């Protein structure tokens, strides 16, 4: 831009010089022409007045002057007339005397009474225009420079804001003496070093390094050629807070205005490294889980085949000894035990599948602590008795007995813990189960501690870290002989977490183990505390009762009808929900004492059938007991059954004792409602 300005100034100077020269030349030409006109006039006067005497000298002088001027052979632009002054001597005088006056009058302009050459006016106008153009260009140039300065200032401010707020540090220094020419202001926030200290001595950066041996040396700098860079990751320590963070440090060798510079960019990679570690940990867990699943499948192949083989084998033996009642009864008892074992394996796998898919939901209902304990002990006592173990049960400091909780999940937790205690304790050992109410932290919640202790073989120390991992089982020879899926403790941990509780373990190999679970239950203030209900189901009488059974599976229907018939009851069976509704409506009110409803049936499922039955315009449709009998045994399945209008839920395979409890309780509740 400066070169352009200089060129324009030079052009303007030439224009001014040319205008001056042109003005002088025009003035001289006009003077010469004027002199020639005057000389000719005088010659003519003298010639007319005195004849030819004495005219030779004057004529000769004038002619020489004009001829000398004419012999230049040039063209002159005067106004708009381009006249050629001939160089020929012959006849030139006559042409000069006639043309000179016209040319002279056209070369001048009268301005304010003064005669000014037109060439001068034209050149003056060009000068004014040139000066005006120069001034305009100068003003435009200044505005352009100011705009560039503002843009540069904005860029510097933007870079400053970014450098202050991002977690990347920028340092530029000279390779000759390591003079720091720029350091981003965020260095004090990120590393605890002030800009001033950093500019004074670049070696201040070395005080933050946790690995000084990897600091870049002068030899390293010489090894980085122009246009190349060097990158490494290092951990540094904040000088004021002591915080440790990882940086990806990239050193660039660049040229700025033909001067070598080094630019160090320190990018914070702490969060990325943390995410990477988390990902690696997750991958490690996934790999461990895959290995555990492979091991689980190997164990399950054995654990599932064992009870199945027992069921098939004992059934075959019973068929061959039909004439020996005692032998048949023994075989059937073993079939029953093996079937329950197989059912437990299947339930564990299904529970873990639900937990791993993240669809565990709690179904809270009214619970009584004594009833929960009785139900658990009823299941565990036979197992302990089979191994001649002593099962101790204690209730300590119980101030509240009525709660709102998920009874099914609590039973699952306690039964798993007690089953393991019995399973891993030698014959004749001791198992202690205690329930204690701890000090309340909230008036509306009771804090309950469930503790299961045994004097069994204990848990190997190397296995304690994997105790709650899915599909994990100890590889100890004495433990590997015990059947199990490796899912029990994983299920317990997941359910305790879902309830917002805690579980802790204390175990010594060869001495025994203690598991402690602490849960908080919302106290049910709306009900009066009552004594524990007896769970003896032998008092319920099936005799003379008539039931409607909706079951699409022929084998399940046959089993259920036979169980009811053995207890003196009658059952009418249909194979879908729509027929159940139609059959109920076709009989008089009170004809059926209860309805046993399968859920997954053709035409109309159990939920739809229940809603349709409840909607019938008759009194018993609202009052009849409806119990869901289904293989869908999760908490959400129970909730769906209750929401559809059923009174209770029982999972297949059907326990007739459990069914008796449900019917007795439902009849009691219905009687209170009346």
UniProtKB/TrEMBL annotation:
It is an enzyme of class 2 (transferase). It catalyses: ATP + protein L-histidine = ADP + protein N-phospho-L-histidine. SUPFAM superfamilies: ATPase domain of HSP90 chaperone/DNA topoisomerase II/histidine kinase, CheY-like, Homodimeric domain of signal transducing histidine kinase, PYP-like sensor domain (PAS domain). Keywords: ATP-binding, Kinase, Membrane, Nucleotide-binding, Phosphoprotein, Transferase, Transmembrane, Transmembrane helix, Two-component regulatory system. Residues 546-667 form the Response regulatory domain. InterPro entries: CheY-like_superfamily, HATPase_C_sf, HATPase_dom, His_kinase_dom, HisK_dim/P_dom, HisK_dim/P_sf, PAS-like_dom_sf, Sig_transdc_His_kin-like_C. The chain crosses the membrane at residues 116-137. Its EC number is 2.7.13.3. GO terms for molecular function: ATP binding; phosphorelay sensor kinase activity. CDD domains: HisKA, REC_hyHK_CKI1_RcsC-like. The modification 4-aspartylphosphate is found at residue 598. In the N-terminal section; belongs to the phytochrome family. May play the central regulatory role in sporulation. It may be an element of the effector pathway responsible for the activation of sporulation genes in response to nutritional stress. Spo0A may act in concert with spo0H (a sigma factor) to control the expression of some genes that are critical to the sporulation process. PANTHER family: TWO-COMPONENT HISTIDINE PROTEIN KINASE. This is Circadian input-output histidine kinase CikA. The lineage of its organism: Bacteria, Bacillati, Bacillota, Clostridia, Christensenellales.
